[in-house]
Design a protein that fits this description.
Elements (H helix, E strand, L loop, with lengths): L1 H51 L2 E9 L3 E8 L5 E8 L2 E3 L5 E3 L4 E7 L9 E8 L4 E7 L1
Antiparallel strand pairs: 1-2, 2-6, 3-4, 3-5, 3-7, 7-8
Length: 140
């Protein structure tokens, strides 16, 4: 009779061990995949913001020998933060990022390290904090 009891006890012990390993594996994988899905959600939110950003260069002016002013219009439905201004591929440092609300425009000013001749054709680019870029060829 003791032989039958030990087989039942061994079976129960195996079920408990396998169940505990399964629960531990499930708990680990649930935590891992929840982190993955939250990262995917963040990327989707960021991509939605990138797609909804709409802005354009309206006007470009040169004042003095090396100051460039660019009028930027936000025709999208979300605010745009202008983070960088480029002239012929050279970054013109901004004192701080400029936020433009939907339906409004703002001047973005930058100082070039070299003199820009009047009447010269230049490439002017602006970049948002989300990475969208608008580029235009202008005569200064």
């Amino acid at each position: 009779m003791s032989r039958g009891v030990s087989e039942i006890v061994a079976t129960l012990l195996m079920i408990v061990v396998v169940s505990s390993i399964g629960v531990a594996l499930f708990t680990y994988s649930a935590g891992y995949f929840s982190g993955t899905t939250s990262a995917i959600g963040e990327v989707n939110t960021l991509n939605a913001g990138i797609v909804m950003e709409r802005f354009v260069i309206v006007d470009t002016l040169k004042s003095g020998t090396n100051t460039i002013s660019v009028a930027v219009y936000n025709y999208g439905r979300t605010p745009v933060t202008i983070a960088a201004l480029f002239l012929n591929g050279t970054n013109l440092p901004l004192s701080e990022p400029i936020e433009i609300m939907p339906g409004y425009w703002a001047w973005v000013n930058g100082t070039t390290p070299v003199m820009v001749l009047s009447g010269s054709i230049c490439s002017v680019s602006i970049a948002s904090s989300l990475g969208n870029v608008y580029e235009e060829m202008v005569r200064l």
